[in-house]
Amino acid sequence: MMGPPNIALLRSFLAVVESSSFTGAAQSLGLRQSTVSGHIARLEQALGRSLLMRDTHRVAPTPDGQALIGFAHDVVQAQDRLCAFFSPSGLRGRIRLGVSEDYTLATLGRVLARFADRHDAVDLQITVGLSRALYQSYDAGDLDVIFCKRRRGDPRGTMAWTEELIWTGRPGFVPDPGQPLPLVLYPPPSMTRTLALDALEAAGRSWRIACTSGSLMGLRAAVEAGLGIAPHSAKVLPPGLAAIPDSAGLPALGEVEFVVLGPGRHHHLATALQEAILASTVELQGAGPS
Question: Which pTM does this prediction carry?
Answer without folding.
Answer: 0.59
